[in-house]
Amino acid sequence: MFLSTIGVIHFASSIISLITGTVVLYKSKGTTPHKQIGYIYTISMFIVLATSFMLYRLHGTFGVLHWFAVISSITLLLGIVPMFIKPKEYLKLHYGFMYWSVIGLYCAFFAEVLTRIPFILKVDTNIIPIFYSLVGVATALVSAIGSIYFRKYKEKWNALIDDSKNNLEI
Questions:
Q1: pLDDT digits (tens, 9 = 90+) for 62-109
Q2: pLDDT for 9
């Protein structure tokens, strides 16, 4: 990945996305810092996704990781577009899709880390089944943990959104 400028940009944008995505999840919603950090997250994620498709050209095939990048692109768009067009329940759409955008980024991060293990341990067998197994394990574990937290906080977020609507109507 670091053999090209695109790889370096991809890596740097990934780190920025991980940091800003985490901050946005844990800080108060709707504040000026939330919006500013959220824009940084969104821009850096667009860069991550754009460069990921550029890096995929090196492999010559469109595989499962490509589909994860497509899903991540759709999730990011579905999280940010409601903030501009303001459909009914736009805040709920925003927090739901943006939450899963960040969780998807965590999945990618842990998959990337785990798939390096066989290379570090110098595994001599066919690495492809091990690679995909580790991607699956990382994605399943992070998604399961993310799902638990999403269910835990969803009602709280909905209540905050409903309260803010009532306060705006007063």
A1: 777 778 899 999 999 999 999 999 988 899 999 999 999 999 999 999
A2: 95
pLDDT by residue (tens digit) across 75-87? Answer: 999 999 999 999 8
C-beta of residue 135 within 8 angstroms of C-beta of residue 111 = yes
> How far apart, in whole angstroms, are the C-alpha atoms of residue 104 and residue 71?
9
CA proximity to 80, closest of 41, 124, 129: 41
The 3-state secondary structure of the chain, one letter per residue: CCCCHHHHHHHHHHHHHHHHHHHHHHCCCCCHHHHHHHHHHHHHHHHHHHHHHHHHCCCCCCCHHHHHHHHHHHHHHHHHHHHHHCCCCHHHHHHHHHHHHHHHHHHHHHHHHHHHHHHHCCCCCCHHHHHHHHHHHHHHHHHHHHHHHHHHHHHHHHHHHHHHHHHHHC
pLDDT number for residue 169? 38
